[in-house]
Amino acid sequence: MGSHRNLVLLSVLIGTLMSAIDTTIVILALPTITSSLSANLFISIWIIIIYLLIVAVLTTQLGGLGDIYGRGRIFNAGFVIFTAGSAACGFSPGIYYLVTFRGIQAIGAALMQANSNAIIADYFGPKERGKAFGYTSMGWSIGGTLGIVLGGIITTFLGWQYIFFINIPIGLIGFILGITFIRDNNKKDAKIDYVGMGLLTASLTLASYGATDIAGRGINSFNLSLIAIGGALIIPFIIYERYPSNPVIRLEAFKVHSLSLSLLASLMQALGYLAVVFLLIMYLQGIRGYDPLDASLLLVPGYIISSLVSPKMGGLSDRFGASIVASIGIFMMAVAVLIYLQLQVNTGILVLIVASVISGIGGAMFWPSNSSAVMSSTPRNLYGSISGLLRTLSSIGTLLSYVISISVASLSVPRYVAFKVFLGEGSLDGGVSRQFLGGIHSALWLCLAFLILAGVMSFFRGSERKKGLELESESSATS
């Protein structure tokens, strides 16, 4: 790789790192934030959900903005907004301010995430992308590690405000690199799909609120109605998305066999992945009695291994094909979940660490390989849109993974007990502990089903490099 491309890759890596950190760092800081701001636990949960929700809804459209105005310009704007939003979060005087500023921070994250894969595809050819995506996947793994570990360390020793303040110097460095080395070599006319964005926002918001309300109040007609309405709104959303020139979700992408299965594999993998980490934290804190810092440290080995091997695994996908490498990775993650399903109240911690390492290697195999498969199936004129679509589906999966895991696991114990465990405020004993473990196992079985489905889709996607022109010809015909 040339030095210029290395610096482009570094800038994208920093943006990826920041986005990943803020997906996980708030989880372990949530109890302290709730107490410090005298907040209601149900409102505090939205510090996490609002971030995931906005990223999920905006990513595809902001990828389209990269196609219109230049990917470098939009990506660098993401750095500015994310960094400013982080500073505002740290200075928040109340919970509603913090939720609002997390939304602003999420807009910046969406701008960066939507254009990151497309920038890599601009600067690296098909035979080099797997390795390049391996480095950006390393950013996700390192960011996830830093988020989990730093969330405990910073909150314990400095204060929760600093989990946001650390983004300021990192964001400034990434912005300087981006504005210096990432060029705008792509621009085209397009329009923002406001109606589609509104329908998707309403659907995900209602479903998320309803599912979270189940954890807080139990199943009732109100939250079931919200979930039902949110699910029903997907139908008019899909119908409408056939008409805009720059839709939130480009439906014709799903007509290309290899591309559609790669995108859906990403969605299913995300549905099963974040929930596993979150459920393990609940197990360690609520059932085993570990404090948030010690619980996070036990999960670090898997993230470290994933970070170290991601570039190598990306290179393997360049040599042997994304389908093989990604599919093996998914099934390794499924094996890890099977091991987690054996966890009992007094299971040795070494079992959890071994499973974490297996899962980390599996993730390192899947993420860069699947990203490479998606972009190799995409014509250059749609890099931004499909890059954004990939991140949108992954973000939707992550959001739903979180709210589903809360709902399923909480059904086994009284609501107030479940919320105490979710926020790391107390541990459980005796029969209640075994009850809650049963809830965690139920949620893990659901995660396993999503991962197996992702593995099947990944395995049967076929050769991505033979299919890319199909979408290009359709796009040219409609432009």
Write the element-wise H/E pattern from the N-terminal end onward: HHHHHHHHHHHHHHHHHHH
Low-confidence stretches: 464-471, 473-479
Measured distance between first and last alpha carbons: 35 Å
Overall morphology: globular
Describe the secondary structure blueprint for this structure:
Elements: H1 3-36, H2 41-44, H3 46-69, H4 71-90, H5 95-123, H6 129-157, H7 162-165, H8 167-181, H9 194-217, H10 221-232, H11 234-240, H12 257-287, H13 292-320, H14 322-340, H15 349-376, H16 383-410, H17 415-422, H18 430-459, H19 468-478
Helix pairs in contact: 1-3, 1-5, 1-6, 1-8, 3-4, 3-5, 3-9, 3-16, 4-5, 4-8, 5-16, 6-13, 6-15, 9-10, 9-11, 9-16, 9-17, 12-13, 12-14, 12-15, 12-16, 12-18, 13-14, 13-15, 14-15, 14-18, 16-18
Task: Give a brief description.
The protein is mainly α and 479 residues long. 81% of the residues lie in helices and 0% in strands.
